[in-house]
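Example (one chain per record):
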Amino acid sequence: MQKIGAVLLLILLIILSIYIGWEEEKPKVISMPVENTTEIFTQKYTDEQQDKRFKLEKKQENMPKNISHNITDETTTVEIPVPETEKTTATFTLVNTKEVNHTVTLSGQKVLFHTNEKPIVLVNIFATWCIPCIGEIPYLNDLQKKYQKELFVYGILTHDTIDQPALETFMAKYQVNYFISNSTDNDAFANLLASTLHLPKNFSIPLTVMYVGDEYFTHYEGIVPVEMIEYDIQQAKKQLK
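Predicted structure:
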């Protein structure tokens, strides 16, 4: 009986030693730092969107040096060359589906909207086949409604073969509450405007340009958050005071 007890004790010790050895060989769990992925994604998204807002001064590094104009701030006067395209002056007639005409003269960074009295103008170059352009329509509707005393939004239909009845249906579907031009002058106007921003001939749409008091203020290439545009409208309003 004592022998059986000794054998059982020996077996138990062997099993215990095997278990202890296995525990020691198990890989240790290392606590890894966890990043807030939502915050990182949001910051990355914000940075990418920020890149889509432009001031014209950022795009003037490679301009011809034969013509120049001065841009002055409170402390420094910087002489910046102006490309030949900024000397081009042309007048266009923008017409909507109700045959309402708006005459616009484009001369470099200045755009004179002859029949508009609002101090802030958004020119949105778009097409009905452009999905990102369609995505901007509700935001432009909201901005036009919210800032109707200061803001006039022009939608400039470009490189689009849609006929007038189909355009009216499109506008009704998306409840467009701002001026949409389907004039034959649209493409020429859009191309000249893009050239004053130093964009290539095959520029991307949507392209939105803000003017304050007929002067260039800023522009956005591609779809951007409405909060960005609204912030710039607020800054433009301060400039008008």
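Caption: Residues 27-50, 58-86 have pLDDT under 50 and may be disordered.
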